[in-house]
Structures are given as C-alpha cells and as structure tokens.
Specification:
This protein is of the alpha/beta class. It has a single domain, classed as Alpha/Beta hydrolase fold, catalytic domain (Rossmann fold), CATH 3.40.50. It contains 13 helices and eight strands. Strands 1-2-4-3-5-6-7-8 form an eight-stranded mixed sheet, with helices on both faces. Strand 7, helix 11 and strand 8 form a beta-alpha-beta unit. The C terminus is likely disordered.
Length: 363
Amino acid sequence: MPTLLASVAGVLAAPVLGGLAYRAVRQRRIARALEIRAPDAIVEDRFVRLGGIDQWIGIRGEHRDNPVLLVLHGGPGSPYSMFTPILRPWEEHFTVVQWDRRGVGKTLGRNGKAGSGEMTFDRMVEDGIELAELLRAHLGQDKVILLASSMGTVVGVSMVQRRPDLFSAYVGTDQNVNMARSEAMSYEVTLERLRAAGNTEGAEALEAIGADPLRWDVRGWNRKQRWVMKMDPVIRDLDSRLLLPLILSSPTYTLRDIVHVIAGLDFAAARLFDEFMSHDARRLGTRFEVPFFLFQGEADVFTPASLAEEYFAEVEAPHKAFALIRNAGHFAAFTQPDQFLTELLTRVRPMVTAPGQRSLQTA
C-alpha cells in the first residue's frame, strides 16, 4: 500500500496541533459508534503468543455464539483493523477477528524488526494455524471461517489445506492466483491508460521498469503499484477517501501505532518480495476439504477477476461458489462492505451455522 505510506507520512510531518485536536474528536465519535452493548458481546484487543513472538489480535462481535470470522490482511504488510468501523454491521452476524501478522502494525511495534523472527509465508501459515486453534478454545467454537484478502490469500490457502479440521469455510477476496500473470496484466492495463491519457511521465516510468515482473525489484514493484492506483478509476482516490481518514481517526491507533503501520508496509514487502512474486496458488493444489468461496471485485486490476474465475473453475471442494462484487476493484470487502456482507450471509453463513448456534433467520 505504497501511496498510503506517502499520504500518512505527509500528514504526520505537517504542523498538526489543530489536526491532532480534530483527530481526538473524530476518535471519540468513532469509539462511540463502535460500542457494543449486547450482554453476550465480546470486545478484546490484546497480544497472544504465536510462533514464539507476541502478535496482536482484535476480537469483536455482538454474540459469542456467532460464527468466528478470522480476517487475513494483505499488503503483505497492511493491517486491516483500520477497517473496523466499516465492518461494524458484520459484528451482528459474526465474531470478527483481526490479526497483525509478524512484521506488521502493532505486532511490529511490540517486537521491532529484529524481533520479528522468521519472515516467510510458511512461518505465517504456522502462526495462523496456532491462532485458529487458540480461537477455537477461547471462543468455544469447533471451527473458524477464514476470510483471506489480497496477499492474505497466500497465507490462507495453505492454512485451510494443511489443517482443514480447523476451518468451516474458506472465503477468498482479491484472490492472488498467479502473481507473475496478475502483475503483467496490471502493468499492461496501466500502461495503456497512461498512454491514452497522454501521461508521458507515467508511461516512461513504467517502460523503465520493464514489462517482465520476474525482473523487478521491490522498488520497481512499488513504483508500478503507485501508477496502477493513480490510473485505476475505481480506487484512485482510495487513500484520501477511505484509508487515510480511517487510519488517522481509528480510536485503537496511537500515533506510535501509525508509525509502525507505515514501517511495516515497507518492511514486510521487502522481506517477502521474492516469495510473493513467485506465488502460484495452483502449485499448492486445487483440492479443498472445506467449502470454498471467492468474492472478487469485478473491476480489480491488482488481482484480476478473470484469473480468479479460471482458478475457481479448477477448484474441487465439498461446496463452492463464486460472486463478483459490483462497482468494486481491489479491497472489495471494504469498499462495498454491505454487498460483501450479503454474500457472506446468503452463501457462507448457512453452510457453517451448527446446531445450537444462532440461525441466519434469528440473527
């Protein structure tokens, strides 16, 4: 999320006495909106021990017997707890769990870069499995729904394949299928848009990077990502309209937390770059032992819906369903949260509600 990095850094570098006062007002207002008063609600914000280090999790829901929805963030260093105000309606139907993985956000703040340990996707898969086991015991649930977004899908697919006994369903969005193909596609689309707009600066910048993703370094990839976002009509103003206001006004983010979010964006990308650029989900196999769902933004340039549909057609699972999220690109769950929730409620929740849990009709 390189453009968010620049935007937040610019705001924090400005003279902000008035801005800090306004931020405090916004934080109090959002905190009131996030209050949960149901007698059987759960609201927790704490560190747990995963893979030998402390890692931050947040748990929120109106009813403890609702299905547990574990969210895997993307980036690979972009925590999603900033989206909590947007997901507030989800908490009526699910217990939503956010997790800052190692090297990211509050977890990075706790441990520092040197204390983040092994920064590999495989290590994060094992961390995630530990977390799923912890959540089962802590929340009294047999299984957990896994909602993986963007580069979180690199972790999520392996989690459900290694330990299907822990999960009642896999829900992928912004699904990464083949990084080399998706990066090449987004490069070509963006270059065409730049040329059509007469933007010679951008076109020359992309041409200098080159069309072969396997020849890029992390700096070239970051430059390309910035131009993709600038030229994507669906999400070009996402930073100023959504991400920046959310991160600056989050009642659970201190200014120190924001600094660590910024640091984690670059740190995780640099440490994981070679791994995610070589990612191909098909190499992990296309057979799943849990219900499998893909909800993809119809106009997603970063992880094209066409690649997700190809992959979905090859998947074998006890049950599977695919849906396009209308008027959405990347971050479909957070730019169209109501539409996404409808898909969760109509397609996923009926498959995972066990006897004794609150049914969809009584939710």
